[in-house]
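Protein 1 of 2
SEQ + STRUCT:
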Amino acid sequence: MKIVIVGTGYVGLVTGTCFAETGVIVTCIDVDQQKIDKLNNGIVPIYEPGLDAMIEQNTQKKRLFFSSSLKDNLGDADSVFIAVGTPPDEDGSADLKYVLDASREIGRYIDHYMVVVTKSTVPVGTAKHVKNAIQKELDIRGNDVLFDVASNPEFLKEGNAIEDFMKPDRIVIGIESQKAESLMSKLYKPFLLNGHPLIFMDIPSAEMTKYAANAMLATKISFMNEISNLCDTVGADVNMVRKGIGSDSRIGTKFIYPGVGYGGSCFPKDVRALIKTSHDRKFPLKILMAVEEVNDFQKTVLFTKIVDHFHGAINNKTFGIWGLSFKPNTDDMREAPSLKIIKKLLNAGAELKVYDPVAMKETRRLLGDTIIYAKDQNEAIINVDALLIITEWSEFRLPDFQVMKKLMRQKVIFDGRNIFEPSEMAESGFTYFSIGRKPIIL
């Protein structure tokens, strides 16, 4: 089989590369010629563990190609996937400009039956717009080529995307014809050998499934963060509460870890888009509006703890920060809690020294020289008044506390991810604040 992927962002690259891994001939298209040139020279524009090696392997085996010309690559393709960005508009809705631009271009050059698949996260009803845009171009050409539109939402976690794609919990596909179902079944057959479910449904249901899944996960996060803040006021330990409720199979242990709020390219955008859709239908989703409100508040919790501990006197204090990306194993800084915390500290007159294993370049692009970039985690805490842990990278979990005590001016830690145990902090001689647990004040 041969497929074309329009878009070489996170979803497009992972999708195309993983399909190539199963023997499909894949061409990834992007209008950015500079990005295509880099990919053809082995330079991958995003950080995702294992992706660069897989791209190299499949390009060498002539299964994965990169081009800026959709026209030159549609000729013998069985299917074309639209995997372009859908950035949030000012009103929170998903901007479909790039999706519809890709659809119109497909309509200008399609010359045989194929399935056009929306892989981008798009609101319910988008498939109809895609179909109309393609058909309009065909009508202009006076061409009666038949085609189908399908919806195939992605469920990839940044930092674990390859594993998620190759061994999916489920594959959801919205279709409107038996012919499209047959083609998509063939394409995904290699991923079903281990019993992973392939779920076919109508297209609007598939489009809604993506938003509903992310909204549910965001809800679990915000719920647990609300509980953690209540634990702070009543003296309970949120980690004990988490274990107690997580042992209930109806609840489970995933996405109930308290922290400093969710970020990234999916949850914030998708929650807002679903809220906007509900308002457009005059059926406001009150729970999701609360989820967003809680998440915005949660990004201020660590700052509030800092202000309270230092009695408001943050001006001229120096803080070290471990972790900048919105989650581990990615360099993605989109809506990262660290950005809000950093800006609040800077506005309060603090000096910041930061370290992240992979997100330093992107942070510098966003914040410039307003902060100091350390070469490693120890350099980030030299002569600081406190350490802030914002992203739970694995390398932060077992530091040498004795070395840290020698480097830090004041032995104070604000742990936004609860990666340390309060008892261990007390034994090591640190004043320690976390989320939803009693502070250790020495």
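Protein 2 of 2
SEQ + STRUCT:
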Amino acid sequence: MRLRRAVRNSFSSVGAYLLLAALGFLVRKLFLQYFDLSYLGYEGLFGSTFTILSVMEMGAGSMFTYLLYSAIEKDDREEISAIMSMFRQLYQGIGLLVIGVGLVLYVCLPYIVTESVENWTYVRIIFLVQMLVSVSTYFLAYRRVLLLADQCEYLVIRIETFFRILGVLSKIAVIVWLQNYLVYILVTFFTNVLANLAVYGSCKRRYPYLKRVRVMPADYKEKKIDREMRSLIIHKLSATIYSSADNIIISALCGIRTVGLFSNYTLINTNVMNLVVKTLQPLEASVGNKVNASTVEENISFYKGYDLFCRMLALFTFVGFSVMLQPVLAWFYGDAYLLPYGMVIAMAANNYIAVRQYAVTAYRNALGHYEIDRNSRIASAVCNIVISIAAGTLTGISGILFATAVGHCFIWYGRVKAVGRIYLQDRSFVRRTFVQEIPGFLLGLVEVVLCMGACMRMPVSFGGILGRLAVCCIVPNLLNLCLFHKAEGMETIRQYASQIIAQVMRRKDV
């Protein structure tokens, strides 16, 4: 049953993101034709600002998902209602706090945007819309955490895909016919609100037993939420600073137009990485259930297979970004929109780290005890900012992205340490993991060189892009299968692949 749900979630995620990615590229192409590049810079800057404000969420989503795993496994409906009532109360308080801080920042906008601005009305409206989109999530979208914990992500995907397609088509109409940027950004707000309302209604119908429970401060203490929150706030603050500092530092050191150019790279990066993550994410709920329902011995083969799959996928991702990102942007937008290739390599390395650690991240998120890797999260944020400023001053945007990859290594280290100590009870797990990573990353560099050499004479055209795609799909994956065919975990991958194919064929027969 859980495998069937995971397969359904994966296929729904992948299909939705392929469609939305294609439409997103079309919107960006039209945007650059009809609107000034600086608007992209403002969106990126304010988006990062509100991402930093999301630190007020304190990691509550991850923590309450972790609490729900056990309650769902036991089908304890009273407990589920109590947890969701606490989550609702906390999220509404956070939403009000974000509104208050956002209004203060609204007054201080001239100090945030230091460059010359021709039309402050536009800039202020962009800021307000970003704030409304951010705040609406706290008041409307909190129930989706129950769907995700119960492995019903496909329901959320269906709803959000419909409204995102509606939003993208509306944006295309606004760009081509109205050419009004204010209407363009309001479309984002309204489609986001409608999607959140639809998800809320779907959750209400699926779980009719949910009821509002009166929540007191003692309830948070009883479930040890107050203790976990103290550690999670450090996690959230560090992660938010780490992930959102780039646009702000790029704006300060390189200018708002460079932020706009960088947003073209992040558009492709976000869509591709979301596609990768959506393929893996449905298994995360399975991990949560396995951790609560299985012994370590029963679960270790699954972990090894999951980790090996992430290793091979990370190598493929690293090669794909290193070889294809710059030619795709040159073909789709033109050479004038390109940034240095060193930034591309740094972004590819960061993506390698993100995918490579996904299995250990899934286990770490299901275990709690966030105090164990708290210091590593602080180190990641501090390292990212310090190295970004130092390297960015010397080498520009390439140095800033390199700092992001270095900071990501600290996050990875902390997650490996947490899983080794809490779950595996093995203190040597950290050392073994990173010793094994040295030849793994060197293998990735070799695969990049091989693919770059094979693609060197290919033109920057649609045919050339397809040729590069074929090389990046065949060379690293074939080499990885040959090298890892006898590795620990490969048999688990084969077993799960067989089951997934059987599920897909059974669905076709129906």
